[in-house]
Amino acid sequence: MSASTYTGNDGFWKPSSTTSARNKTDSNAPVFNFSSAPLAQQRLLLPIHKHKRQILYSVENFGVVVIVGETACGKSTQIPHYLMSNGWCDNGFQIVCTQPRRIAAQTLAARVTKEVGRTLGTTVGYTVRFDNKTSENTKIIYVTDGILLREATLTDPLLSRYSVVMVDEAHERNLNTDALLGLLKKIRRKRQDLRIIVCSATIDAQAFLDFFNAAETTLNIGTIISVDGRQHAVDVLYLDKPTSNYLRSTVETALSICKLSSKNPKGVNGEGDILCFLPSGEDVDEAIRMAQEVVDSQDPTLANHLVFLPLYSKLPFNMQARVFQIDERDKHKTKRRIIFSTNIAETSVTVPRITHVIDSGLVKLPYFDPKTDFERLIVVPSSQASAKQRAGRAGRLQAGQCYRLYTENFFLKLEKATPPEILRTNLSSFILTLKALGVDNILGFDVMDLPGVDSLSHGLESLYALGAIDDDTNLTVLGMDMSSFPTEPRVSRMLLESLREECSVEVAGVCAALQVRSLFLTPRGGSSAGRQQQQLDYESAISEFADSSGDHVTYANVISHQDDRRMDREECSERFLDYVAIRRISEVRDQLLRFLKKFGRIRSLGMATVDEKRKVILKCLTSGFFFNVAKLHNDGKYYTIRGTNHILVSPSSSSIFHTHGSHAEYIIFCETHDGSRGGMELKNVSAIDPRWLRELAPHYWN
DNA sequence: GAGCACTGC
């Protein structure tokens, strides 16, 4: 098929003048059959193998080595292995490799364990939150970057166990990775023996090297090594004219790819599946409705050969799983799958069998506004790096194609990379971590991108209001205690307050619930009659737990019910409760209580009355979230009361406060979203007594 | 008539 023959609804497809999304690699590159070759042979076939000597030489002679390795070049598995075989684990030293995601740390450790020929957790292991598979003798440890950062904060500021720290996927520029890079730069001033390897998929290598070079003496300058990937070529096609409706264009492009294939003698069997990138879960659902409607009405024959699947993180687990299971009954591939996905498929998960990618060119990103203290999700054009990553998803199986729903000129004007998280986020947590690491002057801490003054001072002001730092921005005892919790500062403050109110078990449960996705299974889908009944059933089930103050005490009620009754999966679903979420909440709560135990006696409210229980839980909540208060005005609506800019806010109709609460004069909330009709929508809302504000946050509310 | 990227400790 020739893609340039397709006429889009709003424009024409034309092949890119720069042809391929892939760098350097040859389109006739051999396809390795990894499933049948013995392990040792597989390792020798990896592109990284050619660079083994160069890598070992560089690590020996340079303090910092930047490796530019494309997807599947073998860097994450092989480099630690090479280093171990060459003495970098002698004298009790260990090699640590950081990953942004848990699943990556776990699977990499498992893969390298197989190569080394031991069981997981002996020579090779991993540590992620709630899961530690290492032993005293472990030489190579895969961890999430957050774990290594906390290890430095809590126990070992110089990371003295490690001879080499390898920071993988550094180009993603997560907050944790950035903090870690800054910390490693600082450690190298004291530990010249430490070796740092930074891995990145983009050509940004020089920026990483420059970052470290600024502090290094001439003795130890870093070096860059580039390793080719094992990807197939992906042809990139652009629109001739911009589209006016990306959703419709996505659906029409996907369907026309299928129509063209069905005229091809190879038919649909010759082609892999189609992956479409859209900015939101809502768009994903809408695209599927649209696509189903088009094929049902226009092309019923094609409809029999297609399956439309959604993929986004809020989707229930079993729905997500459908994307990764190739249906047994369909092993001869009579049906072609069209997967509509958010950014989750860009890096977090790999959808199998994709040969075509359709890229809307859009992404939804959070931006924190220090002036309003709200984080907002905004749809923005994705970056060139992101577009390249999306295109690459088509080239894992065989040569593929990527349709970009914008013009080539538009692509050339896009940002090179997505703005790093450090420039977009609330920095209070980041600053508290640095303070705990002994960084007194935050402005003097070296990061790849320095956040704006507004953003830094907002972070400092919040920490001051929480009592974590003093007038001279020095860490207080309370701040030091707060920094030890794996939670954001407001939640850490709330946990510590629970010791004083003697309700730690309940408050830790509420804090855990705030971090895990919704406890309740809200009804969705189905016919309108059935749906109405479901809604009624849902409301009556919730009523059993609902407290008139709102969401937080209701969570405490559910969790305490679970402690007493140990509801199983079935009973949970009858009561519209998410069993997996509740299990997760207990796990998080128990971890929080273990941290809390260092600072005081853990108590539970036991036989306290409903009123007493409500009061102490909400006071603890107020001690952390006093920034987020709104007052009922004469017009019957809530407005924030901080500063001079009073913003209209309305409790989400899905909140317990909305369904079961009273018209309290003052409310407190933990989360905001842009509302559909202006103003902000609130999640996790409770009624509070305004006197608590002066009592618990005097320097903020006086 | 609800509902809103994705991680991580």
TrEMBL record:
Ranges of biased composition (kind: Polar residues): 15-25
Region named Disordered: 1-25
Gene Ontology molecular-function annotations: ATP binding; hydrolase activity; RNA binding; RNA helicase activity
Recorded superkingdom: Eukaryota
SUPFAM superfamilies (alphabetical): P-loop containing nucleoside triphosphate hydrolases (SSF52540)
Pfam families cross-referenced by the UniProt entry: DEAD, HA2_C, Helicase_C, OB_NTP_bind, WHD_HA2
Keyword tRNA-binding found: no
Protein name: RNA helicase
